[in-house]
Amino acid sequence: METKLFTSASAAKYIKRMENEKSRLVSIEQKNATYILAQGEEGEPPAYDYDGIVSRIDELDEAIRIVRHALHAFNAQTVIPEEGVTVDEALIVLAQMNSKLRRLERLRSVEPKKRLSSGYYGGKGIIEYEYANFDVKKAFADYEELYKRIANLQLRLDLVNQTETFAVEVRSPMD
Questions:
Q1: CB 169 within 8 A of CB 66
Q2: Within 41-168, where are the H helices?
Q3: What pLDDT, on a 0 to 100 scale, did the predictor assign at position 123?
């Protein structure tokens, strides 16, 4: 076991690297775990080390679990300066704010008064209008304010993910 120092960003890259190696090994296993010979044909089976591959995948899974758990703990405990929320809470808040931003995007594009294309009410030549039932200018301003708030929170989150570190005791299968 060794102690590795990670940022959130480097831990994610490390996990991705281990997942890629695991996928490579599983692919080798799928190709080489069996082979076909015609009746009476002789040949060498493809190179495949059952014990070695199973053991290596188990090592990768253990390291992934340990680093992923440490990353989750980091996210749950690390408070973003100037925000007063943990990384985990910030991720939840960002998802909620982005959902609200999409709603505000629709609302800010509503016209305060719009003539309907059908044009006539009941065929009697009465023109119909559709009216916004809220202050469209306020929706536009709220959108702009929320957009800036999301950008600021994302920048602060990115800074923490790139600079704050945590240590993990791991038997590194990648080194």
A1: yes
A2: 50-77, 87-108, 136-163
A3: 59
